[in-house]
Specification:
single chain, 93 residues, two-stranded antiparallel ribbon, 3 helices, binds zinc ion
Length: 93
Amino acid sequence: MIAKWLLMALLLAVAYGLWRSKQRAAQRAAQTPRPAGPTLTPPQTMLRCTHCGLHLPQSEAIFAHGHAYCSSAHAQQGAQPPQTTPAQASEPE
Ligand SMILES: [Zn+2]
C-alpha cells in the first residue's frame, strides 16, 4: 500500500520536474533576444580599374579623369595597359 503512494509521489515529482524544466526553457527562449545573425553589409557596386582591370568596391576606388582606379599609382599612370616585356610580347607559338 505504501509502495503505491511512494510510486504516486515519485511520478508527481518527475512530472513536476519536467514541467519546471519546460517552463524554464520557455522563459529562457523568451528572454534571450534573437541573435541578429551575421551583420550583412549591403551589396557594393564593383568597379574595374581602368589601368589593370582589377575589380574593387566603389568605396575603395580612386577616381581620376572620369575613370576608376585601384590605386593612386594606377590613377597617375592612366588607362595604359600594364607594360609587357618584349620577350612576353613576341613569344613564338
Ligand atoms: Zn589597377
